[in-house]
Amino acid sequence: MIDENDVYGIYDKFGIKDTNSVIEEFNKIIKDDSVSSVIKSKAYCGIGDVIAFLEPELHDDCGYEYYKKALEYDEDNLDARVGICVIFDQYPAPKYNVITEEEYLEHLQILINKFDKITDENKRSNIIQLMKNLVEYRLKMISQ
Predict the structure, then answer these.
(1) Is there a contact between 48 and 82 (Cβ–Cβ < 8 Å)?
(2) 77: three-class secondary structure by DSSP
(3) Cα separation, 13 vs 18, whole angstroms
(4) Which end of the chain is more exposed for a tag (fewer CB within 10 A), N or C?
(5) pLDDT for 16-63, tens place per residue?
(6) What is the distance in angstroms between the CA of the first residue and the CA of the last residue of the chain?
(7) What one-character DSSP code corresponds to residue 116?
(8) The domain at 4-143 falls in which architecture?
């Protein structure tokens, strides 16, 4: 039976195994009919993370489609929402026009609303950093 530990075990291979092998391991989980939707969501998020953080040039959308698919399987997948926000933050328009500011703000608002319930300190730090980046981005936009 595949569980969260299997997904997290694949994350441990980031940077050790080549990205195509890591993506294939996540795809095996996704294709397994016995896997819960929450685990499939984590696997889709894993592919998004590989693309967004390791090889954004693999896809024109920097992994966005995989994060969106992760949310289709589990709308409470906060890691997928963080990933979407990171794409907006790291790959902004005009070079990349993957995510609108409105969608970014919608995901960030959900993360902020659930912030008090998040116990993982890394996730909390990521959300705070996203909020700081938003403020910097908006100040830059105003000054242009």
Answers:
(1) no
(2) coil
(3) 9
(4) C
(5) 788 889 999 999 999 999 999 999 999 999 999 999 988 887 778 889
(6) 54
(7) G
(8) Alpha Horseshoe (1.25)
> In which residue are the tokens 């095996």 written?
28
Q: How many C-beta neighbours within 10 Å does residue 43 have?
A: 28
Q: Which among 59, 95, 97, 99 has a CA at the least distance from the CA of 83?
A: 99
Domain extent listing, the chain: 4-143
Please state, in angstroms and as integers, the Cα–Cα distance from residue 41 to each residue in 51, 131, 133, 136, following that order.
16, 24, 26, 31
For residues 75, 80, 81 and 84, what is the CA-based torsion angle, rounded to 10 degrees? Answer: -130
Q: What are the CA-CA distances from residue 36 to residues 1, 3, 19, 144 (Å)? A: 10, 8, 24, 47
pTM of the predicted structure, to 2 decimals: 0.87
DSSP 22-71: HHHHHHHHHH-TTS-HHHHHHHHHHHHHIIIII-GGGSTTTTHHHHHHHH
